[in-house]
TrEMBL record:
WD repeats lie at residues 14-45. This is Uncharacterized protein. PANTHER family: ANGIO-ASSOCIATED MIGRATORY CELL PROTEIN (PTHR19857:SF8), MITOCHONDRIAL DIVISION PROTEIN 1-RELATED (PTHR19857). Signal peptide: none annotated. The lineage of its organism: Eukaryota, Fungi, Dikarya, Basidiomycota, Agaricomycotina. The keyword Transmembrane applies. InterPro entries: WD40/YVTN_repeat-like_dom_sf (IPR015943), WD40_repeat_dom_sf (IPR036322), WD40_rpt (IPR001680), WD_repeat_multifunction (IPR051179). Keywords: Membrane, Repeat, Transmembrane, Transmembrane helix, WD repeat.
Length: 504
């Protein structure tokens, strides 16, 4: 459950933040560490050796930060102006770029949580929580549900549990609440004996740990009734000071902060201190992050503190020696170099040859015929015209491959075809009533044509919009697939090298 060795400080990062550090987060593979500060800056570091990778600044303080659980190199951050920003960085191109922005509130964003199974984002501010659902075709996040708590409360944290079936939030005013994210209906709410400065839910959703703003942390069992605290975890603190808390070791231990600059690590079952992660000077603990991979023997923790002079520092701790196939600074640099070479080859490939364009045109034409067998603007309810005459059988010959022909055996048709056709058989001139009928018929005909043109235009615009958005989504997925394939090829190569090294 716990690593065989104690944590050792691997790197001390002199923060690039000019003010306090509010958030730390490891990427899903532990290769990168992101930090967000009160100065609005977002920085990305290598998760092992702490090498600075890139950064981006925003004009408002960064309040909450998380990595996208499904897409690599994407960070989601909430700011004090109520906006939520998606930032994508590339080890090849350097600094991140903002590619999506959501104005969720006009008040500061207090908490973020992402449901990877249902592609939902929970954003909280004050007493209001909003759920945003990603649209399949456009990729835009639209509001799906909202919850507003009655009374004067302040949200502190949010977490999805049970594969996104439940959402748990903690309020500073002694309250835990559980909702159904689909409708934001309250499933249960429980009051605590102490205020809640920060909280975290264990990976198996069996426990909740919270800062009590008094003398440490309270550990609760997550059941239908949130009873009295099962245990208290004491830590040096100042009354009213919120301390960060985090479950580590797959939920087997709790890591907390303190006002002395040290980070105590408790065993979940015995509540005994396993280790204290010290800092050289007595500073205020500000943020925590952890990543573990038992098979690769990767046990990694990041801590952030600041002293009274606002000198910030981030420390990266490692327990034991990671496996040779685990991400390392050398492997990450080699990966970035190979990705640069791969994409350089793609960029230097030149314009496509004429044969490639012809093949692409044939493929597109085949897709068009497959998707629209009756044509793009053909009305599937229309039928071929049929002309019949009174007193004669309706014998109509229609062949889709040739122009329509009509057979008529009435005497009128025979007279028209005969040479004995006289001038008195010509249509008479139209009088006023007949002319009015012709005008009305012509107006109806023109109206029908106009309606058909409007229908065709609306359909064309719809298909054009759908094709553009689908193409954008397809290109994004192709880009992800290329990155995944490059990573898999590199990982396989590293595994082979590691096995060869072990065999030698």
């Amino acid at each position: 459950m716990h690593p065989a060795q104690n944590y050792v400080c691997r790197r001390i990062l002199r923060s690039r933040h000019a003010n306090s550090i509010n958030s730390l987060a490891f990427s899903r593979d532990g290769a990168y560490l992101a930090s967000g500060g009160q100065d609005g800056k977002l920085s990305v570091w290598c998760g092992d050796d702490g090498e600075y990778v890139c950064g981006i600044s925003y004009d408002k303080p960064l309040q909450a930060l998380l990595w996208h659980p499904r897409v690599d190199f994407v960070l989601i951050s909430g700011y004090a102006d109520g906006s939520v920003v998606w930032s994508r960085f590339s080890p090849i191109q350097g600094d991140p770029r903002l590619f999506r922005k959501l104005i969720a509130f006009d008040t500061p964003v207090d908490a973020l949580a992402f449901d990877s199974k249902n592609d939902r984002l929970a954003v909280g501010s004050g007493a209001v929580i909003k759920i945003y659902k990603r649209q399949l075709v456009t990729g835009i996040y639209k509001q799906a549900a909202v919850y507003k708590h009655q009374g004067d409360v302040n949200l502190h944290s949010l977490a999805f549990i049970e594969d996104g079936a439940r959402l748990i939030g903690s309020f500073v005013q002694n309250l835990f609440v559980c909702w159904d994210p689909s409708s934001m209906d309250t499933l249960w709410s429980r009051a605590t004996a102490t205020k809640i400065g920060s909280s975290d839910v264990s990976p198996d959703a069996s426990h909740i740990v919270s800062s009590n703003l008094r003398d440490g942390f309270e550990l609760y069992g997550l059941a239908s009734s949130l009873a009295a605290s099962s245990s208290s975890l004491k830590a040096p603190t100042q009354v009213g000071m919120p301390l960060p808390a985090l479950f580590v070791h797959d939920g087997g231990a709790v890591l907390g902060g303190s006002s002395s600059g040290n980070f105590p690590l408790w065993d979940l079952e015995s509540s005994s201190v396993l280790q204290a992660l010290p800092h050289d000077y007595a500073g205020t603990t500000q943020a925590l992050a952890a990543y573990s991979h038992r098979e690769l023997n990767v046990w990694r923790i990041a801590t952030a503190t600041s002293d009274s002079g606002l000198r910030n520092s981030i420390r990266i701790w490692q327990a034991g020696t990671p496996s040779p196939v685990a991400p390392s600074p050398q492997s990450l640099r080699l990966r970035r170099a190979r990705e640069r070479s791969y994409f350089q080859i793609l960029r230097d490939g030149g314009s496509p040859a004429l044969a490639e364009l012809i093949v692409a045109a044939i493929v597109l034409l085949g897709l068009y015929n497959f998707c629209f067998p009756r044509g793009l603007f053909n009305n599937p309810g229309s039928q071929p015209p049929v002309i019949t005459y009174a007193g004669a059988p309706a014998t109509t010959c229609y062949n889709p491959s040739v122009p329509p022909t009509f057979q008529c055996t009435t005497s009128e048709c025979s007279d028209l075809r005969s040479h004995a056709y006289q001038s008195h058989h010509l249509p008479r001139s139209l009088d006023g009533a007949d002319a009015q009928k012709v005008k009305i018929g012509l107006a109806r005909y023109l109206h029908t044509i106009g309606e058909g043109l409007k229908f065709a235009l609306r359909r064309a615009l719809f298909y054009f919009y759908a094709s553009i958005t689908s193409l954008q989504y397809l290109l994004f997925r192709v880009w992800e697939l290329m990155g995944y394939l490059f990573l898999r090829v590199y990982t396989m190569e590293e595994e082979v090298r590691a096995w060869v090294h072990l065999a030698d």
